[in-house]
Amino acid sequence: MEKIDELFEKMREGVRNAPVAVKEIKEAGHPVVGMYCTVTPWELIYAAGGVTVSLCSTSEKPIAAAEQHLPRNLCPLIKSSYGFALTDTCPYFHFCDIVIGETTCDGKKKMYELLNALRPTHVMQLPQTTEHAKSLELWKHEVIKLKEVLEERFGASITDEKLTSAIRLKNSLNAAALRFYDLAALPDAVVSGKEIMLVSDYIKFTFNYEEAIANVNALTDILIDAYKNGVRRISASKRILITGCPMGKSLEKVVDAIEAPENSAVVVGFENCGNLKCTHYKVREDIPPLDAIAEKYLSIPCSVMSPNRERTELIRHYIKKYNAAGVADVILQACHTYNVESYSVRTALASEGIPYIAVETDYSQGDVGQLATRFGAFAEML
Ligand code: SF4
Ligand code: SF4
Question: Ligand 2: which atom is nearest the Cα of residue 76?
Fold first, then answer.
């Protein structure tokens, strides 16, 4: 148990020290590339000798500043991200040489137009469907364009060899993450939802990738051994799968509300970006690298895609694999795509008798009481 706590603490420390790590990377002369979305091809940036930093912000602090330029009725993730950039209070944005945006939801793609005045922003044009014969071709064209932008900006040559080794590294990182997430396939829960969020954050904010792979695998090994020896760290038995908008620090309040001791509930997985939505899909290693990269990133089942059938399939897959008793859909205020899609997810799960709850929230702490009441009632019916 001591070793488990030690590894979790090491990961907490890694997340805390990430801003200093980025500063050192920058001072060592490596390009720092910011991104906001899971569809951004990490492998291209790595192959260009750069480091990718995730700029998706989850704090309400800079939202007031952002609202001087952006409408109030906009998703908090967009306002928070733009607010940090505008006030130059995000260390990751501060050290970015370039930002890679993407045409996902309307709010985000229009925000990038303003962001370009603060930092050079290259926007990838994401097709909004996987069902059109030309989508993959168009997206591959965007992947090639990004390759050229990075090569020109950083004087790099992104060869197939470099891409292949970047793909292998990222696949190994995702495999280590997935192996840890898959602990939820064991009959009793091994870790809490908050601990899963910590590991996801650690993976996102650690730039020594080999070390991250080793630490996550070591943690998983120790947890499996402890489980085999009869250790049960989590007593809660009502297993809940989270889906919806990306989950960040400010949304820990949702997990806290679910995992309140009186509910006897535990979050066993997150079918969200930054978690299973990223790690479930591998970049193929048996086809040319640019084709493989284009294929993987287009296949991510984000609600901006239409139709987006694969998301429901992914949710079903993890309900079964993690033996979830219910699904909680976490939707950020003014996120129209996830909000509208909530009906389809609810209907699909209802037809199979799977309990479902949708909550709309933001980054404030104003609804903590309401979340506790709603999840209390949901847990009771499981
Ligand atoms: S939810 Fe959609 S827009 Fe948001 S990070 Fe994921 S893929 Fe990108
Ligand atoms: S949570 Fe929704 S509205 Fe916000 S950035 Fe993501 S897709 Fe756009």
Answer: 4
Q: pLDDT per residue over 338-382, tens digit each?
A: 999 999 999 999 999 999 999 999 999 999 999 999 999 999 999
| Cβ of 54 less than 6 Å from ligand 1 | no
In a domain, 76, yes or no: yes
The radius of gyration of the chain's CA atoms, rounded to the nearest angstrom, is 20
Task: Report yes or no on 362 lying in a domain.
Answer: no
- Residue 49, sorted as left (phi over 0), alpha (psi -120 to 50) or beta, turns out to be left
For residue 34, report the phi and psi dihedrals to the nearest 5 degrees.
-90, 145
**Residue 24, domain extent:** 17-159
Which H/E stretch holds residue 357? strand 356-361
Looking at the domain assignment, is residue 352 inside a domain? no
Q: Of all atoms in ligand 2, which is nearest to the CA of residue 304?
A: 7
- The total of other beta-carbon atoms located within 10 Å of residue 151's CB is 15
In angstroms, rounded to a whole number, what is the distance separating the alpha carbons of residues 345 and 328?
11
Q: How many domains does the chain have?
A: 1
Which is it for strands 32-35 and 326-332: parallel, antiparallel or unpaired? unpaired
In angstroms, rounded to a whole number, what is the distance separating the alpha carbons of residues 218 and 180? 10
CATH number for the domain spanning 78: value is 3.40.50.11890
What does residue 244 show for φ and ψ, rounded to 5 degrees?
115, -150
Instruction: Provide the angle, in degrees to the nearest 10, between the axes of the packed helices 135-154 and 289-298.
Output: 120
pTM above 0.90, yes or no: yes
- What residue type is assigned to position 60 of the chain? E
223 Cα to the center of ligand 1, angstroms = 30
Q: How far apart are CA 153 and CA 363, in angstroms?
A: 35
